[in-house]
Design a protein that fits this description.
single chain, 402 residues, alpha/beta, Rossmann fold, 2 domains, 16 helices, globular
């Protein structure tokens, strides 16, 4: 690769709009993102992309990637993008931020530790396909808590504790939404459910002594009967302090952060996600459970998370909420420590610099974006995938011509 040339990166999928942020700040790399069809939560949470697949058909996705792949040097995938890159015979790296590796598709009856019922129930052929897709990746990267799952399946995984926040979107100068607050107001934009610790928050609220309101986005992910029952139970037992509001478009999130007095984040996983980082960037204090055992390494140096509480029993959560509501001094000190921490781990330019270096290393090692697997083998790979997904033979005949 010519040192003076920009690295052309093809991104398939973008969970949490992380790649969208990175692409704004890379200097040696130019990232082109193709995201998946928008529906459900995606309508609200996706940014605007150069291109979005128009449907759910895997064969159409592969066909489109084959049309454009030779204009790129390397591929990065998120979410189900891994299978498309594998079917299109690309040199790709995979970036994990959640369920794609804590409930991997290649493990039988894969489930999250919070649940009894499997999240994925794939057949043997499907699991075999996804295991090959995993093994064919040139690198596996996972951020923060997700790495603890990745390292179960590979000894060569890369842990990345830096997650970028876009300062052009999340800004403390953004005007808040209109409306008068009658009492201290928390904002909670995360999905509800056990992985987010909603059940712990519900148990903590009756123990609180202060007066406040929580604006909670009415957002569930229901993929199993167990999750449906938990959703119904959470709605049935919703504390009076909680007010549900419809889902919010991503571009309006900063206005809600600025409107609130403080933010309630995740109370179960033990470390930060984008919501907590975005809120602090908007200069709002965040309550979020921090597991002291989870190490955070930035530039080969361990740094401590200032987010509170450090235990997530309902009584401690309630005490932390009361401190935030009743003490302005406590809120200010908490925000000051959180803001300093977030600036260190979510600086978009520093994160983009890391990715520039990484992409450069990958392109030097793998000279082209394609692996040059035989066409017969690639057709068999696609046939196998479609059969594994129980498609009719006549439909397979129509879609294998990629």
């Amino acid at each position: 690769m010519n040192e003076d040339l920009t690295i052309k990166v093809l991104a398939i999928g973008d969970v949490g709009n992380i790649l969208q942020t990175i692409r704004k700040f890379t200097k040696k790399s130019e990232i082109y993102i193709i995201n998946f069809y928008k529906d459900g939560a995606g309508i609200y949470t996706y940014s605007d992309y150069e291109e979005t697949f128009p449907n759910y058909k895997v064969s159409d996705h592969v066909k489109r990637i084959n049309e454009i792949k030779h204009g790129f040097d390397i591929c990065i995938t998120m979410g189900i993008g891994e299978r498309i890159a594998y079917l299109a015979d690309l040199n790709y790296v995979v970036f994990y931020v959640g369920r794609d590796i804590d409930t991997p598709r290649f493990i039988k009856n894969s489930k999250e530790i919070f649940y009894k019922e499997p999240y994925r129930k794939l057949n043997f052929l499907e699991r075999w396909f996804y295991k090959n897709a995993f093994k064919n990746s040139r690198a596996h990267i996972a951020y923060a808590w997700v790495y603890e799952y990745l390292k179960k399946y590979t000894e060569n995984g890369i842990k990345l504790d830096m997650v970028p926040v876009d300062p052009t979107v999340f800004d403390s100068d953004v005007k808040p939404i209109e409306g008068e607050k009658k009492k201290f107001t928390f904002f909670s934009p995360q999905r509800m459910g056990l992985p987010k610790g909603t059940d712990l928050i519900w148990k903590a609220l009756p123990l609180c002594k202060s007066d406040f309101e929580i604006i909670q986005v009415d957002w569930f992910e229901v993929a199993t009967e167990e999750e449906l029952k938990i959703k119904e139970e959470l709605l049935r037992t919703k504390p009076p302090q909680v007010k549900l509001i419809p889902m919010i478009n991503r571009k309006n999130m900063p206005k809600y952060y600025r409107y609130a007095d403080a933010i309630i984040g995740n109370m179960r996983i033990g470390t930060y996600a984008l919501i907590e980082l975005e809120a602090v960037t908007c200069k709002k204090p965040v309550i979020m459970y921090t597991d002291p055992e989870m190490k955070i390494i930035v530039n080969e140096k361990e740094i401590k998370s200032p987010f509170l509480p450090t235990v997530n029993d309902p009584k401690t959560i309630a005490e932390t909420i009361d401190k935030v509501v009743m003490s302005e001094d406590f809120r200010n000190r908490l925000l000051e420590e959180e803001y300093k921490f977030v600036q260190e781990i979510s600086n978009a330019e520093k994160v983009a610099e890391w990715w520039d270096t990484f992409f450069e290393q990958m392109v030097k090692k793998h000279k082209t974006i394609t692996k040059n697997t035989s066409k017969i083998r690639l057709k068999f790979r696609l046939w196998f995938f479609l059969i594994a997904n129980r498609l009719y033979w006549e439909k397979i005949k129509k879609v294998i011509k990629v």
